[in-house]
Amino acid sequence: MPLNLPPLASLRIFEAAARLGSYREAAAELNLTPSAISHGIETLQNWVGAPLFRREGRRLVLTETAEDFLPYVSEGLSLIAVGARRVSPLEDDRRVSISAPPTFASQWLVPRLSRFQARHPQVKLLIDTSHRQVVFPLEDVDLAIRMGEGRWAGTDSTLLFRESLVPVASPAHRREIMRDGEVKWTEASIIHLRTASRDWEEWLARQSLVIEPRGQLHVDMISLAIDAAAAGLGIALAREPLCRGDIDAGRVETLGFAPLPIKTGYWAAVPSGREPRRDVKAFLSWVVAEAAADGQPWQHETVPKPKSA
């Protein structure tokens, strides 16, 4: 009995529009016209028999039907892409696809990549810095750099380095809020990182401080928090060692507090259950060695997949 499948083109359009939240951005990614995107969505809606999107002001929102349908579409397209890559005689075996958080990629990884390229000039590196956590093996990623405590289902993870929190401000703002070597918190604004919302709470508790800051600013990227601090907008909790370059360059200055070690760190994760390709192993060995040579207070740890995975 033949499979009753919707048009593949309409599934690609739906997945892109749902992931990007925009018909216009989906059109740009797929190199189609906006009218072709609209037609593809209409075709799929007719096939499904229910609306897939609705407008809320300027926002494109998934319907309940679309939210149920999207995981199946995403997984199916990912499996097709991975399968095609593995069986194709044209597969580029010298390509290594890496997923990494944007701040890690820009502040730590990219400045060191020339050393890897000098050793392995034939290896092509693809770096994806989207915020999403990739799913092995359904996405076309060989190795992921992840921030956390090191246990993710379906992965083997090796610690690169742990993090420490240290408050920083611009040199000018530091002069404004420091009196006799102490921070006047009522004259300072606090910059919060939304993706690490408990950082300030943990840091203040460990310092036995209760503060009433003048104002607060919330951002969604570590690099943006540092940029805001460098612009004089307040005090950010920087995460060493990623912030070390900004401190050394004088963009921000510490406020006299010792770095506070925390549980989270950056890990190199690969899919468990199969041997990585030689170039993936070469990159993994290189990035672990780079972290060791960095002189950070890290301890080599390798964490296998959880038993329940």
From TrEMBL:
Domain of life: Bacteria
Entry annotated with the keyword ATP-binding: no
Pfam families the UniProt entry points to: HTH_1 (PF00126), LysR_substrate (PF03466)
InterPro entries per the UniProt record, alphabetical: LysR-type_TF_proteobact-type, LysR_HTH_N, LysR_subst-bd, WH-like_DNA-bd_sf, WH_DNA-bd_sf
Keyword Transcription regulation: yes
Residue span, HTH lysR-type domain: 6-63
SUPFAM superfamilies named among the record's database cross-references: Periplasmic binding protein-like II, Winged helix' DNA-binding domain
Entry keyword set: DNA-binding, Transcription, Transcription regulation
Stated family: Belongs to the LysR transcriptional regulatory family.
Protein name: Glycine cleavage system transcriptional activator
Organism annotation: Nitratireductor thuwali
